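Good morning C.,

I know you're traveling, so I'll keep this short. The sequence:
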Amino acid sequence: MLYENEQGYLQALRDIKENGERRPTRNATTISTFGVDLKYDIRNSFPLLTTKRVFWKGVLHELLWFIHGNTNSYDLSLNNVHIWNGNSSRNFLDSQGLNNYEVGDCGPIYGYQWRHFNAPYGGCTTSFEDIEGGIDQLQNCIDLIRNDPTSRRIFMSAWNPEQQREMCLPPCHVSYQFYVNMDDELSCIMYQRSGDMFLGVPFNIASTAFLVSIIAHMTGKKTGMVKLCIGDAHIYEEHKEAVQRQLSRDVSTYRPPTLRILCEPREKIEDYVFEDFEIVGYESYPGIKAAMIA
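The tokens, ready to paste straight into the viewer:
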């Protein structure tokens, strides 16, 4: 079933909560549905939820961290973003058999696969320029959008079975396919094998929209549509009360914000910095706290 915009997201939450199956999983019990599609039109607005405050600065900092191929959670925490700290702690790394990793080393996760797919991993302190081999999938996508925009191969994957044992966690948002229509609008379908619908998915929606917006800006395209296809879409049992609180809020109270990119198009995607972006007119209900389950 396709769910559109924030009203659709809330309906997806409601459907999963009421009709999903209860499943004991690796880290907790979930209420789960298989196969949820979310769609957002980002031509004239930016998809930050208004029924609870989304930490958009954290979303953007994490995305820029990915774009730089960075795998050191300490660097991310310098910007007050701590979402990777739990999965790169000493206890967690040891539980995954990564005893040789320094605290903060996430292994060859998302950004590494985007920028250096399958290159030998030398640790989180290796600089971008010193990594040898691998495939820069993100740059390849940008080059195709510029030079062959009707290609059906504008595709990027973070799913690399050969290096999964070196990652603190295997990727959840595993692939991105970009599409340029005849109106020169750039859209993206992101496939996510596992989606924490309350905490994680609002981040993933905004992150994908930021990525499309950045690539459109630097390639001279317009923004189009973002679609998330989620395999195991779930609500953690611990989040049920928080979900119900969000569902009690009126989605029509606030209008979605817009995104402004303040700089001229950058030559390289890694040249964009946080200060290049401004979210305009973001009003929402207050945030709803819930435990992040690693």
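Safe travels,
E.
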